[in-house]
Amino acid sequence: MPELPEVETVKRTLNELIIGKKIERVSVHLPRIIQRPADPEVFAAMLEGHTFEGVARRGKFLRLLLDGLVLVSHLRMEGRYGVFRSDDPVEKHTHVIFHFTDGTELRYKDVRQFGTMHLFLPGEEWVNPPLNKLGLEPLDEDFTLERFRAVLAHRKGKIKSLLLSQLYVVGIGNIYADEALFAARIHPERTADSLTRPEWKRLHEAIIHVLQEAVKQGGSSIKSYVNGQGEMGMFQQQLAAYGREDEPCMRCGKRIRKITVAGRGTHYCPNCQRRKKRLAR
Ligand SMILES: [Zn+2]
């Protein structure tokens, strides 16, 4: 599933590919991708004649900016965008096509069909689902240690579940949650309110570091991640915890263990990331 770094990579790629392109018409082959407006035909009609002016990101959502409209898109498990010529054969599982006036098209393909698109007038997107309840952007300057602690430090939930929820910090999915908690040496099942000040500091730094590194490398591409040009993103980023069950910990040599937290496969080092009792601060 794409997380912040992968979505950031798609954003940057789309910014190079679709800016200035004018939509002639839109075909929707799988209506349920379109969440707003309710009628996909209205969605298509609203977009006709509009031009892409920019692509931004909020958490794991893309914000495709047009003249007078904002399209909010979530790739969920396996959604992909690609720009093609209109005579290129259309691949299976292509659900939405934005036909441009220049003979090219932006195609949205999604084997798992979990992706979503919401269309808004500019500004409306911030006060409506799915963007209205999102947490702090971890790569923004205002993601300070104080703000991070303010939204989380009093919570009783497991730290990994809270990181995944998107309500407090956005963009972190299963891979980067495991990587950040490993880097910070915090057990994924620790409750947020049990973390010490030095642990918050390490986690804050770790989140920024793992996400920044992954953005630099264009996303970690565990599986089936494809950038906006339709290229497979096999970047072979070195992951320290995620997917390394039974392999030696890079820090201490003990074997990485896999458990389930928040319903997700979770990798951690039982030696470096201990389940300790609450400490005095
Ligand atoms: Zn270790």
From TrEMBL:
Residues 240-274 form the FPG-type domain. DNA binds at residues 93, 112, 155. Residues 2-115 form the Formamidopyrimidine-DNA glycosylase catalytic domain. InterPro entries: DNA_glyclase_Znf_dom_DNA_BS, FPG_cat, FPG_Glyclase, FPG_N, H2TH_FPG, Ribosomal_uS13-like_H2TH, Znf_DNA_glyclase/AP_lyase, Znf_FPG/IleRS. One of its GO terms (molecular function) is double-stranded DNA binding. Binds 1 zinc ion per subunit. Its cofactor is Zn(2+). It catalyses: Hydrolysis of DNA containing ring-opened 7-methylguanine residues, releasing 2,6-diamino-4-hydroxy-5-(N-methyl)formamidopyrimidine; 2'-deoxyribonucleotide-(2'-deoxyribose 5'-phosphate)-2'-deoxyribonucleotide-DNA = a 3'-end 2'-deoxyribonucleotide-(2,3-dehydro-2,3-deoxyribose 5'-phosphate)-DNA + a 5'-end 5'-phospho-2'-deoxyribonucleoside-DNA + H(+). Its EC number is 3.2.2.23, 4.2.99.18. SMART domains: Fapy_DNA_glyco, H2TH. The active site is at 2 (schiff-base intermediate with dna), 3 (proton donor), 60 (proton donor), 264 (proton donor). It comes from the Bacteria. Keywords: DNA damage, DNA repair, DNA-binding, Glycosidase, Hydrolase, Lyase, Metal-binding, Multifunctional enzyme, Zinc, Zinc-finger. GO terms for biological process: base-excision repair. Monomer. Belongs to the FPG family. PANTHER family: FORMAMIDOPYRIMIDINE-DNA GLYCOSYLASE. Involved in base excision repair of DNA damaged by oxidation or by mutagenic agents. Acts as DNA glycosylase that recognizes and removes damaged bases. Has a preference for oxidized purines, such as 7,8-dihydro-8-oxoguanine (8-oxoG). Has AP (apurinic/apyrimidinic) lyase activity and introduces nicks in the DNA strand. Cleaves the DNA backbone by beta-delta elimination to generate a single-strand break at the site of the removed base with both 3'- and 5'-phosphates. This is Formamidopyrimidine-DNA glycosylase. The gene is mutM.
